[in-house]
Amino acid sequence: MKFAKRTNTCGELRISDAGKTVTLNGWVSQVRDLGGVIFINLRDRYGITQITVNSEFQDIYNSAKSLGLEFVISATGKVQQRTSANPNMPTGEIEVLADAIEILNTSEVTPFVVEEDIKASEELRFKYRYLDLRRKKIADNLVLRSNVYNIVHKNFEREKFIEVETPILMKSTPEGARDYLVPSRVHKGKFYALPQSPQTYKQILMVSGLDRYVQICKCFRDEDLRADRQPEFTQIDLEMSFVEEQDVFRVVEGVICDIWKEIKGVELKQPFRTMSYDEAMAAYGSDKPDLRIKGELKIVNITDTVRNTDFKVFADAISASGIVAGIKLSGQDVTRKIIDGLTDYVKTLKFGGLGYIKYNSDGTVSSPMLKFLSEEIQAGIKNDFSAEAGDVLFILSGEKKKVLSGLGNVRLKLAEQFSLTDETRDEFLWVNDFPLFGFDEESGTIVAEHHAFTMPHDADLAKLAEGCEDPGANAELLTSIRAICYDMVCNGSEFGSGSIRIHRGDIQSQVFNVLKLTKQEQEEKFGFLLGAFKYGAPPHGGFALGFDRIIATLCGTKDIRETIAFPKTTSAVGLMDNSPSPVDERQLKDLGITING
RNA sequence: GGAGCCGUAGUUCAGUUUGGUUAGAACGCCUGACUGUCACUCAGGAGGUCGCGAGUUCGAGUCUCGUCGGUUCCGCCA
User: Which of A13, A51, A134, A330 is the most exposed place for a label (fewest CB within 10 A)?
Assistant: First the structure.
């Protein structure tokens, strides 16, 4: 089909172009018909330009009258200065006076109006994502994403990394997240899994001597979703040989600094701050603390101060070897309603209630707990927090980890409630020294916190050697072992995580012993990796950055769906293509699969 | 797996607290008028399985139970 091809995009013409004859192609985003003159806002992903049609040109005028929103047209005419400029649009000083309009395609009335200030629900936007993507805001997110791809590729090329593709169809490993499974037709009853990450492959590439591997890759996890979690997501995955933690940090910081410099024009200070897991949990109740919060709102542990109280709530927590701790909020008007809201919130976190002590400006103290606490303890608490008039303390008691993370969540709620987050900057940090093992209450067993190939700290190797023979009896000793394992955190969001891996067989065996993996299970699950490790595995370690979260942060949103062209809902449904969907009986038969229920 | 919120016109919402007349508004859509708008304006019009299914009731958008979908949080996500 012949048509008048564009000479310019809808975002680029300026007053300096006045007098030129141009052709624009795009979508009709608005029509204002004043009777003798019609104004058309023509849109493409670059911007919007006003096309003016005068009734003196009868043919064009009549065809302009028939235009509907989202029609695709080609408009040709002379660029001229507008009689009254529109300062709100970049092309607002000019218009194109049409002397030809060609309708390239019509459009049905759209299910929602395509406009920057979108009114449609996410559900509708995802169903008609192609219309949603016509909005500059979303299209720009994809453009930004594309730019970051390029920065990442360039950075790693400069750092002498090799991009290697790893299989999408791989062996299922039941550890960690649930796998998405792919049935094999050739081998009925057997399944591939989609990678949760290319973890094993990249470690094997190190055994191969590739030395520095990187890949921007899709990963898949069949777990329940959140605003910042999709069933398939993108990672910047890397692995390096002959490195220690600090070497990985410098490389990852390098690419982050490149991205921030080129996208935001911000020079981040290197090296990034480092905080241990224990420190982060104790002070912020989170392994991904948001350091932008004004006044910090650090957690204070007051267990020792209230140890001898007979206030039942505290006494019960302490006798069950739990803790009592709180955070202090200064200089805010904390109303009854706000306290009630926070109380309801901590109840959703399975706390009985939220204790508070409010030091009023008139010197009085409001708190439902005071009558249960001796004057000495009251004074002790006030001292622990350095509390003054105008301060409010929020206090939780119970099991240590639960209290700390509960207060961590209260801290975030307070920051939100009182707008305490400094949105003008991004705060990066490394959180390291995670525990190597955790205790799984459900199964009553010891499990790997990161994964089974994470190297313990040198200083804790003795603990591992001592505890691995009888893990059940040494749970406390084993869970105190620290791993060379680290997360990068930005603004309270986990950007990525990694570790130095175990490359020595003796340490690996000890870890498998703790995890109660028999020789046979080791062979079945990781035989290929352990096999490779027999032939000279170099010391190595790596990292994986959550690409979607990085883009979301750069776009100023928490919702990674805004940065993905075709996202899925929180129940992992693709609303546009209706995936997942039933398949033909024939397909199932080929695979030897029958559906129950 | 558990909890909260939402579901009413093509769209975004009001109406649900306290059951009762013909379920409203804005935007969009259709018709007409209008030569400088840019959220054009003005006049008129069409448009509803109140997510779905039971139940209570003389009567249900409104109350109860179930169910489906979206979303947020807890669990989960090495």
Answer: A330
User: Can you give the distance from the CA of residue A112 to the C1' of nucleotide B26 in angstroms?
Assistant: 14
Looking at chain A, which residues constitute the CATH 3.30.1360.30 domain(s)? 295-417
Number of alpha carbons in the 13 Å side-chain half-sphere of residue A253: 19
pLDDT at A347: 87
DSSP letters spanning A354-398:
-EEEEE-TTS-EE-TTGGGS-HHHHHHHHHHHT--TTEEEEEEEE
User: Residue A180 above 80 pLDDT?
Assistant: yes
Instruction: Strand B: list positions under 7 Å from protein Cβ.
Output: 1-3, 10-13, 27-30, 33-41, 69-78
- Residue A312 CB closer than 7 angstroms to strand B? no
ipTM value, please give it.
0.94
Strand B proximal to A224 Cβ, under 7 A: yes
Q: What is the CATH number of domain A295-417?
A: 3.30.1360.30
Cβ of residue A578 near strand B, that is under 7 Å?
A: no
Determine the Cα–Cα distance for residues A553 and A423; give it in Å rounded to an integer.
11
Nearest nucleotide (C1') to alpha carbon of A200: B78
Residue A179 (CA) to nucleotide B28 (C1'), in angstroms, measures 44
Domain A15-105 has CATH 3.30.70.100: no
Contact, A34 CB vs strand B, < 7 Å: yes
> What stretch(es) of chain A map to CATH 3.30.930.10?
124-268+541-597
Q: What is the mean pLDDT of chain A?
A: 94
Q: What are the pLDDT digits (tens) for A209-257?
A: 999 999 999 999 999 999 999 999 999 999 999 999 999 999 999 999 9
Asked if strand B comes closer than 7 Å to A25 Cβ, the answer is no
Give residue-wise pLDDT tens across range A264-319.
999 999 999 999 999 999 999 999 999 999 998 999 999 999 999 989 999 999 99
Indicate yes or no: strand B within 7 A of the C-beta of A30: yes
In three-state secondary structure terms, A328 is strand
